[in-house]
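Journal club side-thread
Mid-discussion, someone asked how the predicted structure for our own chain would compare to the paper's figures. Pasting it here so we can look after the session.
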Amino acid sequence: MNRQKLALVILLAIFAVAIASSFLRQPRQKTVEKLKYTTGMAADVSRAAGKVSYEKKLRLDLLDKDLPPFSGFKRNIFRPLFPAEMKPSLLSMKLGKPALPIPPPRPPLPPPVELTPAQKAMEDVAQFTFLGFLQKENHRKIIFLSRDNEIILVRKGDIIAGKYEVASITDEALSINLLATGEQIIVPLMENRPLRRL
């Protein structure tokens, strides 16, 4: 037999011995004829009471005892640990720099400027971006506006954002009327730019 076969036979023998020993040492489940405790059985209180005793009364007499007065500690816990290092800082505190003068109070802020309806309208309209326009023969011109990734088609007479009516559309400008005041605003049209006055 060559060495490899001999090594294989030895390893197989060791493996067989390991399997046999593990099978023999495996724990077996034991059984009994009668259970000591069954479900619903009343517990034996006399044996349990002998092991642990609990007092069920409140002992107020322990509160009436006079305790010796607390003498307390004689040490000042706020005293510095190294008093020698503290002396120079005490001198600097005594000599101290003169106090800085208190700056005068700031003047109150001016009240916020209220925007006119036209200025408010321009802020609202500036949220729209002009993308381009379309005009077929003998038809009204349509412009494409976008806001919040949404494309809106607008013609003359349409209402934008529920507040503004489109009065006219030309190649260069868009005229809108404020529904609340009737004021007219003219906005130049430049491709891929927000609607703003120049």
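Post-session note: Strands lie at 129-134, 142-147, 150-154, 159-160, 164-169, 173-178, 184-188, 193-194.
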